[in-house]
Amino acid sequence: MLLSGRKGVILGVANKRSIAWAIAKAAHDHGAELALTYANDRFKEGVVDLGTSLGVKHYFPCDVARDEEIESLAAQLKATFGTLDFVVHAVAFAKKEELAGGFVDTSREGYRIAQDISSYSLTALCRALRPLLVRGEGGPGGGERTSSVLTLTYLGGQRVVPNYNVMGVAKAALEASVRYLAADLGPDGIRVNAVSAGPIKTLSAAGVSSFSTLLDQMPERAPLRKNVTTEEVADASIFLLSEMARGVTGEVLFVDAGFHAMGI
Ligand code: NAD
């Protein structure tokens, strides 16, 4: 029980295949009290149905492209929980036409949207939720406890992955944001990290052209000779959300069966 007595909000559950949903289940199993958000009304019923199966009581709308919804989320979390121990940002979006062909053909609007939703939103969220994220007594060995912000990234932010295109550039900005936010928020005891997950078949992944070839290569090329599961990503995420990682911030932790380590 690594998150016993901890309160957190998870953004990014769309359905039962979502990485955010695996993290929600694992956080629940580790004793956390959760709030879940949904991007818009289209997702509300599905998110509430899933959350209810875990006994989650708190659901809030949050389109991360809208500052007023992020501010409203912060106000509602303050009213509900008072303080927060962790935030999971598992949100990304790019237009489907930008996730095929050459990166050189990226449109100005496609670039803006991918950066706004997939990268800038982490900074906006951190700024809004910073006053709620607590440090204080109760850390291991009588030390101060930390709070934790976690985002999800992909190898395409560090290396060229065909068709990932504008999302790769957004992930590069997201990973740089993790480092800058870690520096800004560290003095408040707030840690900011990313998990870089291997390819997993989810709703978002389906938007990337030829995504199945990324999955097919893993059992042949990744050191562990397999694809990773959302549960494996979630378990590593729980480590980063918990006091087990109290000395870790500004980090990108790969959970990709070792694929990132390979040259040829
Ligand atoms: P998913 O489609 O289940 O989750 C993406 C979520 O982003 C959805 O819940 C969607 O509602 C949300 N979203 C999109 N636009 C939004 C907006 N404007 N406001 C609020 N929410 C919005 O897919 P997933 O694969 O679980 O993606 C979660 C994260 O994991 C993403 O950041 C993704 O890039 C990252 N990731 C995925 C993989 C993979 O292969 N699936 C690999 C590495 C990283």
Report on the structure:
The protein has a single domain (7-256), classed as NAD(P)-binding Rossmann-like Domain (Rossmann fold, 3-Layer(aba) Sandwich), CATH 3.40.50. Helix content is 39%, strand content 14%. It contains seven helices and seven strands; from the N terminus they run E-H-E-H-E-H-E-H-E-H-E-H-H-E. It has a seven-stranded parallel sheet with strand order 3-2-1-4-5-6-7, with helices on both faces. It is globular, with a radius of gyration of 18 Å. Bound molecules: nicotinamide-adenine-dinucleotide. Residues 12-14, 18-20, 39, 43, 62-65, 90-93, 117, 152-154, 197, 199-200, 202-205 line the site of nicotinamide-adenine-dinucleotide.
Which properties best describe this structure?
264 residues, alpha/beta, Rossmann fold, 7-stranded parallel sheet, 7 helices, 14% strand, globular, binds nicotinamide-adenine-dinucleotide
**From the coordinates shown, what is the CATH architecture?**
3-Layer(aba) Sandwich
Helix content: 25-40%
Biggest sheet strand order reads 3-2-1-4-5-6-7
Number of helices: 7
CATH H level, superfamily name = NAD(P)-binding Rossmann-like Domain
Question: Per CATH, what is the topology?
Answer: Rossmann fold
The coarse silhouette is globular
Number of domains: 1
- Strand-pairing-aware structural class: alpha/beta
